[in-house]
Amino acid sequence: AQSVAQPEDQVNVAEGNPLTVKCTYSVSGNPYLFWYVQYPNRGLQFLLKYITGDNLVKGSYGFEAEFNKSQTSFHLKKPSALVSDSALYFCAVRDRGGGADGLTFGKGTHLIIQP
Amino acid sequence: AAGVIQSPRHLIKEKRETATLKCYPIPRHDTVYWYQQGPGQDPQFLISFYEKMQSDKGSIPDRFSAQQFSDYHSELNMSSLELGDSALYFCASRPLAGANNEQFFGPGTRLTVL
Fold first, then answer.
1. Which residue in chain A is spatially nearest to B5 when comparing CA positions?
2. How far from A84 is each of A34, A91, B20, B59, CA to CA, in Å?
3. CB-based contact (8 Å) between B102 and chain A?
4. Structure confidence at residue A57 (pLDDT)
5. Residue B107 clears pLDDT 80, i.e. is over it
6. How many beta carbons lie within 10 A of that of residue B41, not counting itself?
7. Å between B39 CA and nearest CA of chain A
8. Which of A92, B86, B88, B111 has the highest count of CB atoms within 10 angstroms of its CB?
């Protein structure tokens, strides 16, 4: 069985400061890892993914994430936070051999950027 | 760019009624997924289809069924609705082949069971 842990329910960051949203995963094989963002009453928007190759992946809106196999982590980062980044962020995993298997999501982290 | 379309966007039903949710994937996406997101919860995978065949099954109740049609749209049928079925139901799609492993989500259908 696969699982995702997002240890922080909420992260507060001042605008302009760097932000990190933490994610650790557990999967039997090699993982596909994803970050999605959800704004109130909206669907999930894809931010970035790790499939293979470079451990540092860059995504939409200036976000990036670093895959760390030894720590089974995939933390989301941004060098300078914007108030508009305030939203609910989900980390998700799928086993690489899973074909059309569904994603397993973490519980989500509320990111609040204070002006 | 075309996105995943879900209908209806909002649905109100009484207990023990039935509901049908529809999903129209992005053109040329042959794989469809259904997820349920309860209030304040993470999305839970229900079921997926590839080329009109069920591909993977998650935590879908026996009261629910789904299918994918020849035009790749999918329908989630929910019977004997319970209060606990009130949630946001997302459909997602992607092309199974190729490097695009991310799923593209629709706006969701908010189901309220009274």
1. A43
2. 21, 19, 35, 34
3. yes
4. 96
5. yes
6. 13
7. 11
8. A92
B14 touches chain A (CB under 8 A): no
What does the pLDDT look like over A17-36, one tens digit per residue? 999 999 999 988 888 999 99
B22-78 pLDDT tens trace:
999 999 899 999 999 999 899 999 999 998 999 889 999 999 999 999 999 999 999
What is chain A's length?
A: 115
Instruction: Determine, for residues B102 and A105 on separate chains, whether the beta-carbon distance falls below 8 Å.
Output: no
All residues of chain B having their beta carbon less than 8 Å from the beta carbon of residue A90 are 42-43
Report CA torsion sign: B89, B30, A49, A60: negative
Tens of pLDDT, residue by residue over A69-87, are 999 999 999 999 999 999 9
Backbone angles phi, psi at A90, to 5 degrees: -120, 135
Give the 3-state secondary structure of residue A83. helix
Dihedral over Cα of A28, A34, A37, A38: its sign: negative
Taking the C-alpha atoms of residue B66 and residue B89, their distance in angstroms, rounded to an integer, is 13
Other Cβ atoms within 10 Å of A72 Cβ, number: 16
**φ, ψ dihedrals at B65, nearest 5°:** -140, 160
Phi/psi at B50 (5° precision): -130, 125
Show the tokens assigned to B58: 């998650």
